[in-house]
Amino acid sequence: MDNDRRQLVDNIRIAIASAQSENEVLEEAAKLIDSFSDSYNWTGFYMMRGNALEVGPYVGPATEHTRIELNKGICGAAASRGETVMVDDVRSDSRFLACSLSTRSEIVVPLLDGEIVLGEIDIDSDRPHNFTSADREMLETIAQVIVERLSKVR
Description:
Order of helices and strands: HHEEEHEEEH
Number of helices: 4
Strand order of the largest sheet: 3-2-1-6-5-4
Shape: globular
CATH topology: Beta-Lactamase
Distance between the termini: 30 Å
Radius of gyration: 14 Å
Helix content: 25-40%
CATH class: Alpha Beta
Structural class: alpha+beta
CATH architecture: 2-Layer Sandwich
Largest sheet: 6 strands, antiparallel
Protein backbone atom coordinates (compact mmCIF):
# COMPACT_ATOMS: atom_id res chain seq x y z
CA MET A 1 0.00 0.00 0.00
CA ASP A 2 1.42 3.42 -0.90
CA ASN A 3 1.99 6.14 1.68
CA ASP A 4 -1.15 8.14 0.84
CA ARG A 5 -3.38 5.10 1.24
CA ARG A 6 -1.60 3.99 4.40
CA GLN A 7 -2.01 7.53 5.79
CA LEU A 8 -5.76 7.43 5.11
CA VAL A 9 -6.07 4.11 6.97
CA ASP A 10 -4.14 5.59 9.92
CA ASN A 11 -6.22 8.79 9.87
CA ILE A 12 -9.44 6.78 9.99
CA ARG A 13 -8.14 4.60 12.82
CA ILE A 14 -7.30 7.75 14.82
CA ALA A 15 -10.54 9.58 13.94
CA ILE A 16 -12.84 6.73 14.98
CA ALA A 17 -10.89 5.66 18.07
CA SER A 18 -13.01 7.87 20.34
CA ALA A 19 -16.31 7.44 18.49
CA GLN A 20 -19.04 6.27 20.83
CA SER A 21 -21.67 5.03 18.39
CA GLU A 22 -21.98 3.19 15.10
CA ASN A 23 -23.23 6.36 13.43
CA GLU A 24 -20.24 8.38 14.69
CA VAL A 25 -17.78 5.75 13.43
CA LEU A 26 -19.40 5.64 10.00
CA GLU A 27 -19.79 9.43 9.65
CA GLU A 28 -16.11 10.05 10.40
CA ALA A 29 -14.97 7.26 8.09
CA ALA A 30 -17.22 8.39 5.21
CA LYS A 31 -15.89 11.96 5.38
CA LEU A 32 -12.27 10.84 5.40
CA ILE A 33 -12.68 8.25 2.65
CA ASP A 34 -14.52 10.75 0.46
CA SER A 35 -11.78 13.35 0.90
CA PHE A 36 -9.18 10.87 -0.39
CA SER A 37 -10.08 11.39 -4.06
CA ASP A 38 -11.80 14.05 -6.13
CA SER A 39 -13.10 11.22 -8.31
CA TYR A 40 -15.41 9.89 -5.57
CA ASN A 41 -18.86 11.40 -6.08
CA TRP A 42 -20.80 9.30 -3.52
CA THR A 43 -19.09 7.71 -0.54
CA GLY A 44 -20.99 6.00 2.21
CA PHE A 45 -22.24 3.00 4.05
CA TYR A 46 -25.11 0.58 3.82
CA MET A 47 -25.70 -1.43 6.98
CA MET A 48 -27.49 -4.76 7.40
CA ARG A 49 -30.85 -4.29 9.06
CA GLY A 50 -32.73 -7.56 9.12
CA ASN A 51 -32.41 -9.11 5.68
CA ALA A 52 -31.70 -5.89 3.79
CA LEU A 53 -29.18 -3.08 3.55
CA GLU A 54 -30.18 0.35 4.80
CA VAL A 55 -28.33 3.51 3.88
CA GLY A 56 -26.14 4.89 6.63
CA PRO A 57 -23.96 7.98 6.77
CA TYR A 58 -22.68 9.15 3.40
CA VAL A 59 -21.15 12.06 1.53
CA GLY A 60 -22.76 12.97 -1.78
CA PRO A 61 -26.12 13.66 -3.34
CA ALA A 62 -29.28 12.18 -1.85
CA THR A 63 -30.06 8.64 -2.92
CA GLU A 64 -33.45 7.09 -3.53
CA HIS A 65 -31.94 3.70 -2.68
CA THR A 66 -32.29 3.87 1.09
CA ARG A 67 -33.05 0.14 1.40
CA ILE A 68 -31.54 -2.55 -0.83
CA GLU A 69 -32.54 -6.18 -0.70
CA LEU A 70 -29.85 -8.85 -0.73
CA ASN A 71 -28.94 -9.96 -4.26
CA LYS A 72 -30.28 -6.65 -5.66
CA GLY A 73 -27.85 -4.23 -7.23
CA ILE A 74 -24.11 -4.25 -6.81
CA CYS A 75 -24.49 -3.52 -3.09
CA GLY A 76 -26.83 -6.47 -2.62
CA ALA A 77 -24.45 -8.72 -4.56
CA ALA A 78 -21.46 -7.75 -2.40
CA ALA A 79 -23.42 -8.33 0.81
CA SER A 80 -24.83 -11.64 -0.39
CA ARG A 81 -21.41 -12.96 -1.38
CA GLY A 82 -19.46 -11.31 1.43
CA GLU A 83 -16.92 -10.17 -1.15
CA THR A 84 -15.74 -6.90 -2.63
CA VAL A 85 -17.33 -6.06 -5.98
CA MET A 86 -15.56 -3.62 -8.29
CA VAL A 87 -17.36 -2.55 -11.47
CA ASP A 88 -15.35 -0.66 -14.09
CA ASP A 89 -18.38 0.44 -16.12
CA VAL A 90 -21.74 0.28 -14.37
CA ARG A 91 -23.52 0.81 -17.69
CA SER A 92 -22.45 -2.68 -18.72
CA ASP A 93 -23.54 -4.33 -15.43
CA SER A 94 -27.23 -5.23 -15.28
CA ARG A 95 -27.09 -5.30 -11.46
CA PHE A 96 -26.42 -1.55 -11.21
CA LEU A 97 -29.09 0.50 -9.38
CA ALA A 98 -28.59 4.06 -10.58
CA CYS A 99 -28.43 6.69 -7.87
CA SER A 100 -26.98 9.16 -10.34
CA LEU A 101 -27.03 8.98 -14.12
CA SER A 102 -23.45 10.27 -14.18
CA THR A 103 -22.05 7.32 -12.19
CA ARG A 104 -19.71 5.22 -14.31
CA SER A 105 -17.85 2.95 -11.85
CA GLU A 106 -18.45 1.59 -8.37
CA ILE A 107 -16.70 -0.34 -5.64
CA VAL A 108 -18.49 -2.04 -2.74
CA VAL A 109 -16.51 -3.49 0.17
CA PRO A 110 -18.27 -5.57 2.84
CA LEU A 111 -17.74 -4.94 6.54
CA LEU A 112 -17.06 -8.50 7.64
CA ASP A 113 -17.07 -9.70 11.24
CA GLY A 114 -15.83 -13.20 10.58
CA GLU A 115 -18.31 -14.43 8.01
CA ILE A 116 -21.07 -12.07 9.12
CA VAL A 117 -21.71 -9.05 6.88
CA LEU A 118 -22.41 -6.04 9.10
CA GLY A 119 -22.71 -3.65 6.19
CA GLU A 120 -20.53 -2.23 3.45
CA ILE A 121 -18.59 0.71 2.11
CA ASP A 122 -20.01 1.91 -1.22
CA ILE A 123 -18.22 4.40 -3.48
CA ASP A 124 -19.42 5.69 -6.85
CA SER A 125 -17.35 7.60 -9.38
CA ASP A 126 -18.27 9.55 -12.50
CA ARG A 127 -15.13 8.13 -14.13
CA PRO A 128 -15.12 4.69 -15.76
CA HIS A 129 -12.39 2.31 -14.56
CA ASN A 130 -11.78 4.57 -11.57
CA PHE A 131 -10.98 1.96 -8.93
CA THR A 132 -7.73 0.01 -8.78
CA SER A 133 -6.48 -3.02 -6.90
CA ALA A 134 -4.66 -0.55 -4.62
CA ASP A 135 -8.01 1.11 -3.82
CA ARG A 136 -9.51 -2.30 -3.15
CA GLU A 137 -6.69 -3.22 -0.74
CA MET A 138 -6.97 0.14 1.04
CA LEU A 139 -10.75 -0.08 1.40
CA GLU A 140 -10.65 -3.69 2.61
CA THR A 141 -8.13 -2.61 5.26
CA ILE A 142 -10.36 0.33 6.23
CA ALA A 143 -13.32 -2.07 6.48
CA GLN A 144 -11.36 -4.18 8.98
CA VAL A 145 -10.50 -1.07 11.03
CA ILE A 146 -14.15 -0.04 11.08
CA VAL A 147 -15.36 -3.51 12.10
CA GLU A 148 -12.86 -3.57 14.96
CA ARG A 149 -14.19 -0.24 16.24
CA LEU A 150 -17.82 -1.21 15.73
CA SER A 151 -17.28 -4.27 17.92
CA LYS A 152 -16.52 -1.86 20.79
CA VAL A 153 -19.43 0.55 20.30
CA ARG A 154 -22.27 -1.81 19.38
